UniProtKB/TrEMBL annotation, chain A:
Protein name as it appears in the record: Uncharacterized protein
UniProtKB/TrEMBL annotation, chain B:
Highest taxon listed in the record's lineage: Bacteria
Organism: Persicitalea jodogahamensis
Official protein name in the record: Lipoprotein
């Protein structure tokens, strides 16, 4: 019962934190079910099952903390996560993600922005505690690429408006510490609630990126972006 | 922990410093222009316009007194030059101002607009004596206030 209420609390927490920020969820069927297959390295594959949910609740029109009129539309995120055991209480973790989104802001020069981004993350995590080991603490490095296409409008009441489309390819690196809580749904399935704090530095590229794929909502920041997020991942454990 | 707190304040300081940046106009910029005809008898300036104008509301605000006038006139964002027309009682004088449009992005402003001095000639003018001075439209607020000038200043005088 305690676990169910904690689970509901986590979902609520993920919902709330996700509205403003960014990203992902993971599951660990690995640690709780270590009674079977003992002595063998365990391996799970997970899929983010939450990031697109709060967006639907906002009817595809999520206000951004950018100004009165900035909105995020048509955002879709796909993230696949792999986890494997390195040694007792110590795991590796890899993530591949794709995000597309649109940002509109009729009161700004950048009226409409389309972004498509790919990113990869990888790192390690440690199980906390002695017994059930639901909690994990980890850190990942990341490499990101995204392409921002921005429709610009400079108003010209006397001579006519100047309109142009600015396309920028951005490359960056970053790291994110994260905390994960794993719900063991059975010998094969695991639901992971993960909360991360991402730091990202754009190495190549320019321009404002109200939403940075792989990082999250980043309005007001420029080359160095910090964002957080909470999400859920459903993992399936393959036979070792 | 102390380091984290210092970093936090450092980043906060950076943000507040960035707030002192003038990001310039978000739409069509204006220039400060004064024209005069000092010939005798002075022919009066009747109206001011420009080639390709869609709305002349700003031109109607140009202050005219006899054969001279002064005020702010808009700059076209559609090309790197704007040709102004000065309708005097006896003839039309023209002034074509050249410039370089800058549409770019910077960390303090995001997308912004600025106007710079052209690589070639600054103007073509039928006025006998014309000067054009270019000051940036964007920059640190201290710098902009320090120079005491903003944007493009044009002075055109005819003596014939």
């Amino acid at each position: 019962m305690k676990e169910i209420s904690l689970f509901l609390f986590c979902i609520a927490g993920a919902m709330v934190s996700h509205l403003g920020f960014g990203q992902s969820v993971e599951i660990d069927t690995i640690s709780s079910v270590r009674s079977d297959f003992s002595g063998q390295k365990r391996f799970t594959v997970g899929l983010d099952v939450f990031k697109n949910v709060p967006f639907l609740a906002f009817n595809n029109n999520l206000p951004l903390p950018a100004g009165q009129s900035a909105r995020l539309h048509n955002r879709g995120i796909v993230e696949i996560v792999l986890r494997g055991e390195i040694s007792d209480n110590f795991y590796w973790n890899g993530l591949a993600g794709f995000t597309r989104a649109e940002v509109t802001d009729p009161e700004s020069i950048a009226r409409r922005q389309e972004v498509v981004g790919w990113y990869g993350k990888g790192g390690v995590e440690w199980a906390l505690g002695q017994r059930k080991r639901h909690s994990k603490l980890g850190i990942r490095g990341m490499l990101t690429y995204n392409r921002y296409a921005t429709d610009l409008l400079y108003e010209g009441p006397s001579f006519g408006d100047y309109q142009t489309r600015d396309v920028v390819n951005n490359f960056g690196i970053g790291f994110e510490p994260y905390y994960a809580y794993d719900f063991f749904l059975g010998p094969r399935w695991l639901l992971r609630w993960e909360t991360r704090w991402s730091h990202h530095l754009r190495v190549i590229g320019k321009g404002e990126t109200p939403y940075y794929p792989g990082v999250g909502v980043s309005f007001g920041l420029y080359d160095y972006v910090v964002s957080g997020g909470s999400t859920l991942q459903l993992h399936y454990r393959f036979r070792p | 922990m102390k380091k984290i707190i210092h970093t936090f304040f450092f980043l906060g300081g950076m943000v507040s410093l960035a707030g002192c940046y003038d990001c310039g106009p978000r739409a069509e910029p204006t220039i400060s222009l004064s024209v005069s005809r000092n010939d005798t008898p002075t022919s009066s300036l009747q109206r001011v316009s420009a080639v390709g104008v869609k709305s002349d509301s700003l031109f109607r605000q140009f202050r005219i007194k006899g054969g001279s006038g002064s005020g702010q006139l808009p700059l076209s964002l559609l090309q790197d030059s704007t040709t102004y027309l000065f309708y005097f009682a006896d003839r039309v004088d023209t002034l074509t101002l050249f410039y370089k449009r800058i549409f770019d992005t910077r960390s303090e402003c995001g997308y912004y607009l600025d106007i710079a001095e052209p690589d070639g000639p600054r103007f073509h003018s039928t006025f006998g004596n014309t000067t054009a001075t270019y000051y940036p439209y964007t920059g640190k607020v201290e710098g902009l206030n320090g120079s005491g000038a903003y944007g493009i200043l044009v002075d055109a005088t005819s003596y014939n």
